Automatic annotation (TrEMBL), chain A:
<dbReference type="Pfam" id="PF00497">
    <property type="entry name" value="SBP_bac_3"/>
</dbReference>
<dbReference type="InterPro" id="IPR051455">
    <property type="entry name" value="Bact_solute-bind_prot3"/>
</dbReference>
<comment type="similarity">
    <text>Belongs to the bacterial solute-binding protein 3 family.</text>
</comment>
<dbReference type="InterPro" id="IPR018313">
    <property type="entry name" value="SBP_3_CS"/>
</dbReference>
<keyword id="KW-0813">Transport</keyword>
<protein>
    <submittedName>
        <fullName>Glutamate ABC transporter substrate-binding protein</fullName>
    </submittedName>
</protein>
<feature type="domain" description="Solute-binding protein family 3/N-terminal">
    <location>
        <begin position="37"/>
        <end position="262"/>
    </location>
</feature>
Automatic annotation (TrEMBL), chain B:
<keyword id="KW-0029">Amino-acid transport</keyword>
<comment type="similarity">
    <text>Belongs to the binding-protein-dependent transport system permease family. HisMQ subfamily.</text>
</comment>
<feature type="transmembrane region" description="Helical">
    <location>
        <begin position="12"/>
        <end position="38"/>
    </location>
</feature>
<dbReference type="InterPro" id="IPR000515">
    <property type="entry name" value="MetI-like"/>
</dbReference>
<feature type="transmembrane region" description="Helical">
    <location>
        <begin position="59"/>
        <end position="83"/>
    </location>
</feature>
<keyword id="KW-1003">Cell membrane</keyword>
<protein>
    <submittedName>
        <fullName>Amino acid ABC transporter permease</fullName>
    </submittedName>
</protein>
From TrEMBL, chain C:
<feature type="transmembrane region" description="Helical">
    <location>
        <begin position="190"/>
        <end position="211"/>
    </location>
</feature>
<dbReference type="InterPro" id="IPR000515">
    <property type="entry name" value="MetI-like"/>
</dbReference>
<feature type="transmembrane region" description="Helical">
    <location>
        <begin position="141"/>
        <end position="161"/>
    </location>
</feature>
<keyword id="KW-0472">Membrane</keyword>
<comment type="similarity">
    <text>Belongs to the binding-protein-dependent transport system permease family.</text>
</comment>
<keyword id="KW-0812">Transmembrane</keyword>
<feature type="domain" description="ABC transmembrane type-1">
    <location>
        <begin position="70"/>
        <end position="263"/>
    </location>
</feature>
Length: 277, 221, 303
């Protein structure tokens, strides 16, 4: 008897879960094979660039650029399927064709260009540090010596700071920027380093108003591009779209909308195909 | 085929894994024994604490436990464990987190080992006037340990594999290196296979060795 | 359990005083620790209402981040369990086979998958699925997570099944053979039905391991399970990492505590049941299952 009950329970669980998966698979097929839909990779956890908000929508500069580009490619905002593109996954997502293009604080580098193609650049950002607003001991990059730096696991830009600018600095690596910010708040970390566009987004959050400031060091040039699969004909179309976006003023509007509250001094719109070293 | 391995110090990474495993194993054995003693002690509050500890810690994903050691203990409570650079602090925090987590499993293994000691043994011990700590230390635990070498070997193997989670707070062990390599090289399958092999090299011998030990020391009843 | 009260005498007046003293000291130590933790958290502004408020007043933190994550966690765990169970039983029985090649192969497979971190198994599965199948990218992480969990947990379950079958009194096999049953009849009609009931608690508590291990899929595979929901969530609510991780930990504890409670309830029921031989692979035995070798279970099966 008991065995029978268990079997029934197990069978029910199996059927339920298969149904659930079935639904999931259907959604997936709609997303990738339908003519109207387009799948775009963005960050879900970077305020100001790409963020999944509590009401399930997506906001940020990358999101606005991607939406504009998608519209130029013939896809209404409602037809966009947003997919999380973590830093480590981006090349793989493109190579496997999981996404049509990626706009996720994706810097154009020679190593990456060997694996994927880039349209753009559409934004010139710089590596910078975020420090506590009342911390006056860090005014130039060399001040980072003997300070406690934080970044995310495997971040090469943070390694560079430690190796080239501030060899005496200590580097803490976490799974995400949020943990670094908690450390910065707790005064265990002195500086969080990554692209200023990302840092500005965090500094502008209502919870952090007045608590943190940007160092303004411009430690590197990060040319944000839109990643597409190698040899994809999307590259030319996206470049045209980006040019149009700058011309008709949408680019400035998007910058103002997303970075305005952060007081982030952005660089002017970059020329397509011109990479600032 | 293995050219891409140049520039990566695989042995150093696995050495960190071994160290993490070793210190955490020693720590878990001690703290797990204390917990087990608490769970069978005459003081109700200690029993309650032991039960609550095991039930809470065992049910939290290890990643959360490890992240808490860094965010909670280090950042908020200012626990540095006597170190002053991040590498050492993180390593010690990871050992602490792994110990806190693994000892709940050690405790449960030991408790079932205690249950296998025949009642007559403890009755005899009490009859000759031994008190609770003496009963536990001289009669029960030695026999309990011998009967749970096998289960503890499983815990050790799980611990070895669990050290991979320490990467979450920036400890440069094998899994952290694997992530870096996967990100930099387009060799996912090969890299995974190498690291899988590395872990088999660590876990299989210790499992076999302890399996043999457990047969040698098991109490025949 | 009975051995606990056997470990010490009924406390007399002096022992009672000593126990009371120990209780007070222990309580004081615990209280001091709690006070220290709360005080430090407050000092560092981690108890500010703004950090915790989203989980209590903003239902969207649940509907957008936590609940979808929980759903994925549950789906992956349920699927992994349902697939791993028969597979585990198969390998467990194969390890008890009379044919050396079957025993050997099953043993090799089980030991192999138990020796590798689940995370690596998942990564492997993910790469293999994208390389050799056309599973849609949206469900691929789920497939990979489930595959990794199945490979590992089927091996553990195989050991549970083996322990369960070995735990049955020899008389069962002898009696079955005496009435002329063949090997596979003995297994199908006598050993398996009895051992399955005796193993259920251990199997259910293996689910706890599966539930927790789904969290491994979040970090590297982009599987949006419960733990992975912390990242976009804390990015929205001002990096309230401590609050977010605490809430997720509580959800895991509640979920798993419900499962373990179910396991011990089931164990109690089965012990009273008539169809068992009284042998039960305890809920605890999962963590203690012996590794390579023949020492499975004898000790924990007597409890």
């Amino acid at each position: 008897m008991k065995l029978h009950k268990v079997t029934v329970a197990a069978a029910t669980a199996l059927v339920l879960s298969l149904t659930a998966v079935g639904c999931g698979t259907d959604d997936g097929n709609d997303a990738s094979s339908g003519d109207e839909k387009i799948t775009i990779g963005i960050k879900f956890d970077q305020p100001g660039l790409g963020l999944k908000t509590p009401d399930g929508k997506y906001t940020g500069f990358d999101v606005d650029v991607a939406t504009y580009v998608a519209k130029e490619l013939g896809h209404e905002p409602g037809d966009i399927v947003w997919k999380q593109a973590k830093s480590a996954d981006r090349e793989t997502l493109l190579q496997r064709g999981d996404v049509d293009f990626i706009a996720a604080s994706y810097s154009i580098t020679p190593e990456r260009e060997q694996k994927v193609d880039f349209a753009g650049p559409y934004l010139l950002a710089h590596q910078d540090v975020l420090i506590r607003a009342d911390d006056n001991s860090i005014t130039k990059p060399e001040d980072l010596n003997n300070k406690k730096l934080c970044s995310v696991t495997g971040s090469t830009s943070a390694q560079n700071v430690k190796e080239e600018i501030a060899p005496e600095a200590q580097l803490q690596e976490y799974g995400g920027y949020s943990e670094c910010l908690t450390g910065l708040e707790n005064k265990v970390i002195d500086a969080l380093t990554t692209d200023d566009s990302i840092l500005a987004g965090y500094a502008a959050q209502p919870e952090f108003k007045g608590k943190f400031k940007l160092g303004g060091f411009k430690l590197s040039n990060e040319n944000y591009g839109i990643g597409v699969a190698q040899g994809s004909d999307l590259k030319a179309q996206i470049n045209t779209a980006l040019e149009k976006m700058v011309e008709d003023g949408s680019w400035d509007a998007a910058v103002e909308k997303n970075f305005g509250p952060a007081g982030y001094k952005n660089e002017p719109a970059p020329k397509i195909g011109v990479i600032v070293d | 085929m293995f050219d891409f391995l140049k520039g990566y110090d695989l042995l150093a990474a696995f050495w960190v894994t071994v160290q993490l495993t070793f210190y955490s194993a020693v720590g878990s054995l001690i703290w797990g024994t204390v917990l087990a003693a608490m769970r069978v002690s005459p003081v109700p509050l200690m029993r309650a604490f032991g039960t609550a500890y095991v039930n809470v810690v065992r049910n939290i994903p290890l990643t959360v436990v490890i992240v808490f050691t860094s965010l909670g203990l280090f950042q908020t409570l200012g626990v540095t464990l006597g170190a002053d650079d991040f590498t050492t602090i993180n390593f010690r925090l990871a050992v602490l987190g792994l110990t806190a987590y693994t000892s709940s499993f050690v405790c449960e293994a030991l408790r079932s080992g205690i249950n296998t000691v025949p009642v007559g043994q403890t009755e005899a011990a009490r009859a000759i006037g031994l008190n609770f700590p003496q009963v536990l230390r001289l009669i029960v635990l030695p026999q309990a340990f011998r009967s749970v070498v096998g289960p503890l070997a499983s815990v050790l193997i799980a611990l070895t594999k669990n050290t991979t989670v320490a990467a979450a707070i920036g400890v440069a062990e094998a899994a952290a290196l694997m992530r870096v390599m996967i990100e930099n090289e387009a060799q996912l399958i090969l890299i995974s296979a190498i690291f899988a092999f590395g872990f088999i090299c660590l876990t299989l011998p210790s499992g076999l060795l302890l399996g043999w030990v457990s047969k040698k020391v098991s109490v025949r009843r | 359990m009975s051995s606990q009260s056997v470990l010490y005498d009924v406390p007399g007046p002096r022992a009672r005083r000593r126990n009371a003293l120990l209780t007070v000291v222990f309580l004081a130590a615990l209280a001091a620790m709690v006070w220290w933790v709360v005080q430090s958290l407050a000092d560092k502004n981690q108890l500010e209402w703004v950090k915790w408020q989203p989980f209590f007043t903003d239902s969207r933190s649940w509907s957008t981040y936590l609940l979808p994550g929980l759903e994925n966690t549950l789906i992956a765990a349920a699927l992994a369990m349902v697939i791993a169970l028969p597979l585990g039983a198969l390998f467990g029985i194969a390890r008890l086979s009379d044919h050396w090649w079957m025993r050997g192969t099953a043993g090799l497979v089980v030991e192999f998958f138990r020796a590798i971190p689940v995370l690596i198994l998942m990564l492997f599965a993910n790469a293999a699925y994208s390389e050799f199948t056309d599973i849609s990218p949206d469900s691929r992480p789920l497939y990979a997570v489930v595959t990794g969990l199945v490979l590992y947990n089927a091996s553990v379950l195989a050991e549970i099944v083996r322990a369960g079958i070995l735990s049955l009194p020899r008389g069962q096999t002898d009696a079955a053979k005496a009435i002329g049953m063949r090997k596979n009849q003995v297994m199908r009609h006598v050993l398996l039905p009895q051992s399955i009931t005796s193993m259920l608690p251990a199997i259910v508590s293996q689910l706890v391991v599966i539930v927790k291990d789904t969290a491994l899929g979040g970090a590297l595979l982009g599987f949006s399970e419960l733990l992975a929901s912390v990242r976009p969530m804390s990015a929205n609510y001002g990096a309230n990492t401590i609050a977010s991780f605490t809430v997720v930990a509580v959800v895991f504890v509640v979920l798993n505590f419900a499962l373990t409670s179910f396991a011990s309830w089931l164990e109690g029921r089965l012990r009273r049941g008539k169809r068992t031989t009284g042998a039960v692979v305890g809920a605890d035995a999962v963590d203690q299952l012996a590794t390579p070798g023949e020492h499975v279970g004898r000790d924990e099966l007597d409890e």
